[in-house]
Amino acid sequence: MMAARSSPGAQHRLFLIATEESGDRLGAALMKELQQRLGVSVRFEGVGGRAMAEQGLVSLFPIEELSIMGISAVVRRLPSILRRIRSTAEAVHRARPDMLIIIDSPDFTHRVAKRVRVRDPSIAIVNYVSPTVWAWRPGRARAMRPYVDHVLALLPFEPQEYRRLRGPPCTYVGHPLTEQIDGLRPSSAEQARRDSDPPVLVVLPGSRRSEIFHQMAVFGETLGRLQAEQGNLELILPTVPHLRDAVEAGVRDWPVQPTIVVGDAEKKAAFRIARAAFAKSGTVTLELALAHVPMVAVYKAGAMEAWIGKRVIRSASVILANLVVGENVIPEFIQEDCVPDKLVPALREVLADTPMRTRQLEGFTRIDDIMSTGAQTPSACAADVVLAVLRKA
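RE: above sequence
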């Protein structure tokens, strides 16, 4: 990589790209940390959402344009996505920043990064949130070396995977969920409710409309059977404001009705009193593990996504909490296994004092140490690496 244009004391120009809400939050926290350290000598440009806008970023376009999921949806929107990739790369070239920071969304951000590296090799490129090279398409790690100077990893096992796969330098900076532990752990009164009857079961069918579409029928049938066999249960289904209508429509025909709560604070309150959880696989499994809530995890995708997934996924588990703990303590039911006949017995086990429940709780107690970044926050650790890469450049 050629020398960057900044000199000591000069203004640092950083171009950030985050196209999803989770990446937007990461980008905002990193911007805030860098502003605290660099003051007026740092300038931000790029693509982001509401959180990054609060830190002063004027986004090139609304990130909601790229809020799509599923192969068929991507195919329909492909021409507009490709135009955005080209226009974003051109905007980076015109801005001539010292560093490009791409945050998650690899199908979009990495295509931009490749174009930027070809046009201007002097721009340092940092990738915040590793693609899942440990789960599928491991060759991506080595392919990133020509255009990514450093990877900021959210999961503690990822740097070792990058070394094994001969990818670019990778540093574990911590997961933002670790900053929320106090809000996830129960008070003494909440623990008493967690241990009392009727048991609270948190129901989490997904955080996207497409996920809700694929999961709701099997969730409803499973919970109906569980209620008939188990007796009284208190079901709480947390969601977000823009999905409330989809969730309400999805549960309308369920034989048992959950209490729907909206917002992050209500979700955490539900976690703190939950005996167990019934969750679609994703980041929420790690959140539940940090809250010490045993769970049954499922995933049911569309036919095309399932066909591809079977052929490319290489990891021993698709459950993040399992990967962090280092063993498959959480049962996972994927595609044809995601049926009430298998899910009901698993939920009975996780609600009762059984070896399965005990094994999960023992695994969860190790996560704090495994994911610790010491006294520093993840955004502070990320800022350390960003500044080190800038100095090296």
